[in-house]
Amino acid sequence: MAYQPKSYRKFVATAATATLVATAVTPAFAAETGAATDFTDVPERYLTAVDYLLENQITNGITDTQYGTVQSIKRVDAAVMIAKALKLDLSDRPASGFSDVPDRAAVYVNALKEEGIINGKTTTSFGAADNITRGEIALILANAYNLSGDADVKFTDVSSRYAEAVEALVANKVTEGKTATSFGTADAITRGEFAIFLHRISQIDTPDEDPVTNAAISSVTAINETQLEVTFKTALTDEQVDFIEEAGNRIVVFDSSETAQTANLVSTVVSFSDDNKTATVVLGDNESTDEVETELVEGRAYTVALVSQYGTDTALAEVEAKSASTVLLKGLEVPDVELAGDEDTFVFNFDEEMTEEALDEANYTVYDKNNVEVEGVFANGEFVNATSNDAVEFDINPDVLEAGQTYKVVIDAAVEAKDGSQLTTAQRTVTLKTPTLAEAKPKASVARVVDQETIVVTFDKELAELQGLNLNQFSVTQADGREFDVTDVVLADNGRDVTLTVAPLEVNGEEQYLRDGRTYKVSLPAGLAVNETFTNATSDAVNDKSVVAANNAEVTDFSAKFVRQTGEKDAADLLITLNQPANVTDAADITIENLDGSSSLVDPASIEVYEGDSTGKTFIVRDVETAFDGFVPEAGDTYKITLAEGSFNSVTTTATPNTNDELDITLNGLDISAPEVDSVTVNSAEKVTVEFNEAINVSNLEESDIQVTGFIKSVNGSVAPALLTGSNLIKVSAAGDTLTITPASDAVKFTTGADLTVEIAEDSLTDVNGIENAAFDSADLDASDFNDKAAPVIVGTQITGTDSLAVVYSEAVRFEDANTATAGAQYSVSGALRNAAATSAEVDATSDYIVTLTFGQDVFEAGKVYAAATLTYRSNTTSALEDLEDIRQASQTVKGLSGVASAEAPADEQAPADEQAPADEQAPADEQAPANPEV
Which pLDDT score is estimated for 209? Predict the structure, then answer.
């Protein structure tokens, strides 16, 4: 796992021991609602239910002081309340066709009718002014909320028409009837009874029927120690996804010593991608088992299973789908080995930062195809990237390996990651492939006459020393067919140039040497040039290669350009093309200058004939950063290139060579620098921007290439800290030099403040010239380059006692004043057991991400979920909450409070309050609806 700031790590450790209940943030200016205690006709047993209706703006009282608890409800008013409770979209609904619905209620009835929740008394009459009965309400609510269930009821007044709906309400503890034998089917329901029905339905966690069947897991990938990505073979339905996300704990992870029922790791949050095929899973401890386990163990094989609904005890779970047993967290991956440079170096690409032992060639043993050890293969190990240290480059010693072969490399156990991760025994053996014989074979690319008795042939690869030469196999022939004797063949110091010395011809008693302006043919024997590294790769014969002797003319002009090295986009060579062939002198000097200063060539010997130009006019200075002592060309800059006087001799066979005067030209720079991060800005819990030093291209960037610290909230309200990565959690975009990261859904929030970290994988994005980035971790940024503009926000709450509440923030926080009473006065709860302001607030001792509130009285019932209750924070002038950068929290209201499960039945699961309604709350006989109403 990547490094996390201290306070975030402390919070993660704290959060791992408890389920945090997240909340949906609502605007700070959300309207205040009334309280049932303001009414004079609401007995205590109705208070919570009436408060629920008022706070959710489902209804108001019939007057400022009267709720109308014992009054009956007309069908049209009940329809309005149900539509509001369901939060139906009222727009663009077709007319219901009912002629008796008043204008004020038409949009609500239209929506219910289109959803199939209600019917009318007839096709044109809704019966809007009729009082609605308990039987009708049972039918409507069971239909609207998809309630089902069996209950052993003994009501004598429930006909077959109502039986299924009434059983569903009883099974879901919405009601238990008027008496043990009477449901009151034909009785008009009172406003108080209806309030209790709607409130109890709002507390139901999940429907009985589980639609998750026929699911199949195709793959599982560990993102880190606490997160998985689970991919299903086919997309799940929206309903299936809703069930899994809402439960949050439907994924279990177990090893060979466990079963799905005894798994120590279970999901705490599950979040699906838009296509319903891939789920990001946050793991935590299974509290129904004795052993505490919160993370995957490296090297251990696990099975991942989707299980049925089981409540809180996995012993009751049944497996719906499972993966094969596999090692999820492998630690170090098998390194990828690639041939690099001029095919004379090998790079071992690891996936983590390595220790210095990875640089020791003694830790790499090479075997040939016969399993015979090959000694002395590697030398000069160094990290390719000095910041990430995850790739090691070795030179290949000459004449040890053969081209066209496959070798086995066994990596010693001492080679390990900096975090202690090790390769398994199987992973320590990797394959090394050398280039094919055709690829490794040296090829003659350029031939030049450099003086009256010398021809130089340049090859495209560095060569081994020439041995066992038979000079009779070499020939230099002029146009009339006469052949010069080759008296010597030598390999130059640069390892690429083969120099042929010829004896003059005897023509009419005179010696005739190579002459200016004439064309000659050069032939070389097969096997002359041997690849310095892979000595079984030798050159083909060269037959009659043309070479023209230049005229003795001074170099008067040249052109130049920077070019990226083949396969090394972050290194550049300098190509200099003269107006005619020439030779480099020992006094050669090249200067590059711009406004930042000048750089001179370190060594004239670094000017070589360029093998890519057969005319012999082009010379190359390889790797300008090395050749010019640290010079790096920059895109957009203009440079002056100066050839010092006497740097190049003209080619002549018969006269004194002419040397050039000082020459200069200007040329444009070249981008060879990888894009680098200049700064990271935390704008809010929903926006992070990363600014680079140049424009970037993110066309190949995937969301899985980025990790951001943050939180994932499940549908059921649970929230967990997580490293956010992948397209179902984050979205990325770029404009110019700025990368913007945002959540992929409302369920995701970023850590705010200095604790946020952003990681970007290497080679995941480029600049406009295709130069790939190095790995980036914001933990390595200078503090001055990290900009915190985000205020802390509440991301979750948890009821920790009947009089206490934990408030979880997006970052470490503190209060401006140490007075816990004035700090507490900024927080108030509405819609729980009672409305109350906190009497104290203080930052939790275990984590400065958490503020603990106490209320001085019972505000909550143990184990109860208050889905509609709200927590409001409004700062005062003395004790405002702020982050560690002195940024104050804005006023905020969050909705939905949940507590820790209790072994005791909560109060609202005792006999329903409407079971024995007093006689004066029964519906008058003349308010009863027809015996068989159409609903």
Answer: 57
CB 18 within 8 A of CB 808: no
- The residue behind tokens 């409130």 is 199
Write the pLDDT tens digit of every residue in 355-407. Answer: 999 999 999 999 999 999 999 999 999 998 766 788 899 999 999 999 999 99
Beta partners for 598? 593
With a threshold of 0.90, does the pTM exceed it? no
End-to-end CA distance of the chain: 58
What pLDDT does 31 receive?
30
The pair of structure tokens assigned to 422 is: 């090790």
Q: Which of 237, 223, 195, 238 is nearest to 62 (CA)?
A: 195
**pLDDT(261) > 50:** yes
Tokens encoding 591:
């200067």
Maximal C-alpha separation, the chain: 146
> Residue with structure tokens 């160094």?
382
Q: Please answer whether residues 392 and 382 qualify as being in contact, where contact means their C-beta atoms are separated by less than 8 angstroms.
A: yes
Q: How far apart are CA 913 and CA 919, in angstroms?
A: 14
Give the distance, in angstroms, between the CA of residue 434 and the centroid of all CA atoms in the same chain.
Answer: 35
Q: How far apart are CA 778 and CA 250, in angstroms?
A: 34
pLDDT score, position 11: 52
Closest listed residue to residue 295, CA positions, set 284, 304, 305: 284
CA-closest candidate to residue 307, choices 242, 257, 263: 263
Which of 385, 377, 381, 382 is CA-nearest to residue 434?
A: 377
Identify the structural domains of the chain with CATH numbers, from first to last. Answer: 16-23+791-904 (2.60.40.1220), 36-202 (no CATH), 217-327 (2.60.40.1220), 344-434 (2.60.40.1220), 439-548 (2.60.40.1220), 558-664 (2.60.40), 677-788 (2.60.40.1220)
Give the Cα separation of 223 and 225 in Å (integer).
Answer: 7
d(CA 189, CA 169): 14
The DSSP call for residue 190 is B
Measured CA to CA, the distance from residue 90 to residue 177 in angstroms comes to: 33
Give alpha helix (H) positions in 203-321: 238-247
Summary mean pLDDT of the chain: 86
Measured over the CA atoms of residue 724, residue 725, residue 726 and residue 730, the dihedral's sign is positive
User: Quick one: pLDDT at residue 762?
Assistant: 86
pLDDT tens digit sequence for 585-616: 999 999 999 877 888 888 999 999 998 898 88
What is the layout of strands, in order, in the sheet containing 406-411? 373-374, 364-367, 406-411, 429-433
pLDDT over 60 at 865, yes or no? yes
3-class DSSP assignment, residue 42: coil
Task: Tell me the three-class secondary structure of 352-417, residue by residue.
Answer: CCECHHHHCHHHEEEECCCCCEECCCEEEEEECCCCCCCEEEEEECCCCCCCCCEEEEEECCCCEE
Residue positions counted in the chain: 935
At 224, is the secondary structure helix, strand, or coil? strand
Beta strands in 217-277, from DSSP E residues, in sequence order: 217-224, 227-232, 251-254, 265-272
Backbone angles phi, psi at 410, to 5 degrees: -105, 120
Q: How many CB atoms lie within 10 A of CB 368?
A: 14
> What gap in Å lies between CA 882 and CA 889, rounded to an integer?
6
Radius of gyration of the chain (CA): 41
Q: Which amino acid is at 717?
A: G
Alpha-carbon distance 408 to 404, whole Å? Answer: 14
**Helices 191-202 and 75-86 meet at what angle, rounded to 10?**
20
Nearest Cα to 294, choosing from 222, 226, 241, 377? 226
CA distance 403 to 843: 67
- What the block records as the tokens of 309 is 């609904």
Which of 335-344, 476-485, 650-659 has maximum average pLDDT?
476-485
